[in-house]
Amino acid sequence: MPSPDIQGTQRGYVIPIGGAEDKLDNQEILNKFVELCGGSEAVITVIPTASQLDDTGARYQKIFEELGVKTTYSLPITERSDAQKPEYLTTLEKSTGIFITGGNQLRLSTILGGTPIAQSIRKLNAQGVHYAGTSAGAAIVSQHMITGGSTGIVPTENGVNLAPGMGLINTIVVDQHFNQRNRLARLLSAVSYNPFLIGIGLDEDTAAFIDHNNVFTSVGSGAITVIDASDIKYSSMAEARSGDALTLLNVKLHILAAGGRFDISERKAYVS
Amino acid sequence: MPSPDIQGTQRGYVIPIGGAEDKLDNQEILNKFVELCGGSEAVITVIPTASQLDDTGARYQKIFEELGVKTTYSLPITERSDAQKPEYLTTLEKSTGIFITGGNQLRLSTILGGTPIAQSIRKLNAQGVHYAGTSAGAAIVSQHMITGGSTGIVPTENGVNLAPGMGLINTIVVDQHFNQRNRLARLLSAVSYNPFLIGIGLDEDTAAFIDHNNVFTSVGSGAITVIDASDIKYSSMAEARSGDALTLLNVKLHILAAGGRFDISERKAYVS
């Protein structure tokens, strides 16, 4: 049975993390996730599918237990048939929080996409279960997921590869390891394909805690770069040849260090 | 005597180049500079002071001669006393174009700063002589010159070092090798110190041809990134501690590939 004290009609938090979140020292992001999920009463299920290391699930279970969570699970889903197992679905439905680890986001989309597990994650989040995902687990939250692209600052035609993600949130496209891997170019390219998308670039050890009103707060030691191209005056995307530097006029840029906030629906940045 | 057909009351072009301009193949930037200076009738003086290689001046003289310029000079200024020599000033005043090479911009500011040569460059440019400078020679054109700083995307308090430049143009701060060396962070830091500055990030083989109306056109194979912080809603610069990621809300960003234009006085980007 789903936990009655957390599930309701209000969407749970969606928490994409830019990878390399602090696991040893102050653990600010993971700790805040645990608190949202109910602290010691939380039930956290880890899905380590993106990772190809056998111990990733157990490692996160141990971290959450050290943060005081009494009940943790890990679902060792490594192929599509695993993502149909009724016992895994039963476990998942007990969760107050779901955590998807890093690794390769194409493993997430190819193994989980369209399965009962993916459907259940969407349903549970809509009912109030909190979702956090780091690195690949962050990329997958958006409907349009970045799987690769050019590094640097200047966007190019063909400078990003997109694939369908899990779609917990529309209208955003999420990138991670953002400052560390110099990914502005590919996020600008993604947003230029269709400026209705808001680009969210997450630094390592930095997370967007997105609430049910689609307002998020930046948490962690880095920053979140927000690209809003909705007021764009000109883009050369449609005319440019593959690899050409793009011309983009009037892009709005926000850099949100810890405490900075952004309203996705209203496209407004502020400090609380 | 200054060339009478080029000097007047209208400022000459100021042409910062992002470094590594094409010298072998189409030479678009250097060729356009030569045309502005009078083509075969141009008189181009190279100042290789930033470089510590003995042949830099001669190398650029050869390039300009291969582009059809009959008269070229190089001034081997390597210390402050050289920058006072009357014979160098006499040569400089014959120029229709002045070209400052790459190297270390602190050599330019420490050796040329406040000397008769620097005063003459400013005066000649104000009278119509064109100025082009690549890499260090580009950095020096602004009044506030970037000499170092953090790489990456996210700006930090203390993330850039500034020094006084030659000041051919006010209200801009120029950075070079921009996409190649991931310098958005330091340009954002520079602009955050005082948002009256417009940040101009020049990719390699890319130049801003700034006319006497302070309107520039992007020329070359890369792009020019323009940062306009004049409408900024919030900056944490004044409160942040050294090294902290900054929060910056409502920065305007333009990416100008070849043909893109920007009006520095009006702070408006457009395509011609």
Please explain how this structure is put together.
The structure is a homodimer of 272-residue chains. Chain A is of the alpha/beta class and 272 residues long. In chain A, 23% of the residues lie in helices and 29% in strands. Chain A is built from seven helices and 16 strands. In chain A, the strands form three sheets. In chain A, strands 3-2-4-5-1-10-11-15-16 form a nine-stranded mixed sheet, sandwiched between helices. The first copy, chain A, has a five-stranded mixed sheet with strand order 8-9-12-14-13, with helices on one face. In chain A, helix 7 (184-193) links the parallel strand 8 and strand 9 (198-202). In chain A, helix 3 runs parallel beside helix 5. The longest helix of chain A has 12 residues, at 116-127. Chain A is globular, with a radius of gyration of 18 Å. The N and C termini of chain A lie far apart (37 Å). The model of chain A is unreliable at 1-5 (pLDDT under 50). The A-B interface holds A 151-155, 178-180, 182-185, 188, 201, 203, 221-223, 225, 233-234, 236, 240, 244-260, 269-271 and B 151-155, 178-180, 182-185, 188, 201, 203, 221-223, 225, 233-234, 236, 240, 244-260, 269-271. Strand 14 of chain A pairs antiparallel with strand 14 (248-257) of chain B.
